Amino acid sequence: MSLSLQAISKFSERAVHGIGKKLDICFKHFLFNRCTPGDDPQLSLGSSDCDKFSSWVFPLKVCAALCLSMEGYHIKCEKAPWKGSRRWLYFAMLSLMMGVLIFYSWSSLALSPSLGWRKDSLSSYSDGNKTTAVESISPHHLPSQFFVEYPHQYHFILDEPNRCQQESPFLVVIIPVAPQSREARDIIRSTWGRETQVFGQLVSYYFLLGKSRIGNDTEPLDEQILLESQKHHDVLQSNFLDSYRNLTIKTMVMLEWLSTHCLNTSYAMKIDSDTFLNVHNLVNMLLKAPHHDYMTGLVARGALVLRDPNSKWFLSSNAFPESSYPPYALGLGYVFSLDLPKRILEASRYVKAVYIEDVYVGLCMRHVGVPLTDPPHNGLFMTTINKPDVCYLASVIATLLQDSEQILEVWKVFKTQPRNDC
To answer: What kind of membrane protein is this, topologically (predicted)?
Structure first.
């Protein structure tokens, strides 16, 4: 920004308004080594000029104060009867103040564009609360409670780094479960989690945990989980906080693990810990399924977005403006081919991570352009069970129960009751 001497001179008049004509002449003389005639015309600066020069006000006032302090020496424009050393001292002080003034103005101009860009970028982010987002979503600038911190670099505290690669199973079943739910894990290990060889295919099971703040008075929970892991070699624990709101993070961490640890595996299943699983029916279906671009389960199509703030799955119109969700597989249990985890993870860079886990996977699937596949027939994935009937249990792949303890009851019926009439 270039400023004419006249413009600066006129702005100085505004900056030191009220000091008086004598001070103004003195101020100009020291700054520019020039005098203003007695009949100096009054030039006015508009509001836009004042805005342009606003960053100069403070240094000008300081210079004016220095000049005022010299009033007692009777400075005149024509000649200044000062001693040389004193004159040079004041000249040095004013030169220093002018340097500060120039730096102050330059800094203001230099910083303004970056501050403006930051403001614009944040407002753009806030206005773009749609399903897909621009590149490099930052989870630290999420607009509300409807989104979770993903993508993010989580790491595993407990891992089985080589097991999946060494076993090369046909199917990997991952059960997300709370850290403190040891009983639920043991129930699954003693029921359908024992089915490891089905139709000549190897099936492996892993429990996925986050971190919990809950502990035991006598023994920390982390130590209990470590001992459990050393005993069963089926525990995966990551460093995110394990909570319902973080189920999306849990699922994405699962996909990260599968994409790097199970390179020779054909399929994976995510299933809740309070669900009965008929592993034989599952493997039988997968033996006839596509090996690529495949995801199936209880597929929801045209599901409406719940706008009731009291709903467990509430999403505001600002967070998700669409009235219905794209197709997605309900989180009780869904199966997918192992080419999908990397593609879903790639999509997560562009799709904002809503806290509803199964919906988010559906959003990522839409982003990569892979349609969900309905099961071969209805009734394979169920959300309710009227009674533990053996024929019903023999016909399903997965059915949601009241809790994990009910698995024991259902499993006993499934294994002991005859199926002659089914």
So the answer is: Single-pass type II membrane protein
**pLDDT digits over 105-143, tens only?**
444 333 333 323 222 322 222 233 333 332 333 444 444
Same domain, 291 and 186: yes
Cα–Cα distance for residue pair 24/36, rounded to 1 Å = 9
Per-residue pLDDT tens digits for 380-405: 999 988 778 999 999 999 999 999 99
**Beta bridge pairs of residue 335:** 269, 296
State the first-to-last Cα distance of the chain, in angstroms, to the nearest integer: 88
CA 315 to chain centre: 17
On whether the CB atoms of residues 235 and 206 are closer than 8 A, the answer is: yes
| 229 and 321 fall within a common domain | yes
Choose among 147, 141, 133, 152: nearest CA to 355. Answer: 147
Question: Are residue 243 and residue 96 in the same domain, yes or no?
Answer: no
Exposed/middle/buried for 165, CB within 10 Å: 0-12, 13-18, 19+? middle
CA distance 2 to 184: 74
Same domain, 168 and 85: no
The residues, any chain, with a CB within 8 Å of residue 51's CB and separated by 6 or more, are none
Enclosing domain of residue 79: 5-115
Q: Are 361 and 258 in contact (CB under 8 A)?
A: no
Q: Do residues 66 and 213 both lie within one domain? A: no
Same domain, 88 and 172: no
H or E stretch covering 253: helix 247-261
Question: Would residue 279 count as lying in a domain?
Answer: yes
Task: Please tell me whether residues 310 and 205 are part of one structural domain.
Answer: yes
Please check whether residue 83 lies inside any domain of the structure: yes
Are residues 396 and 313 part of one domain? yes
Summarised one tens digit per residue, pLDDT across range 201-238 is: 999 999 999 999 755 554 688 899 999 999 999 999 99
How far is it, in rounded angstroms, from Cα 370 to Cα 186?
Answer: 36
C-alpha span between 373 and 265 (Å, rounded): 20
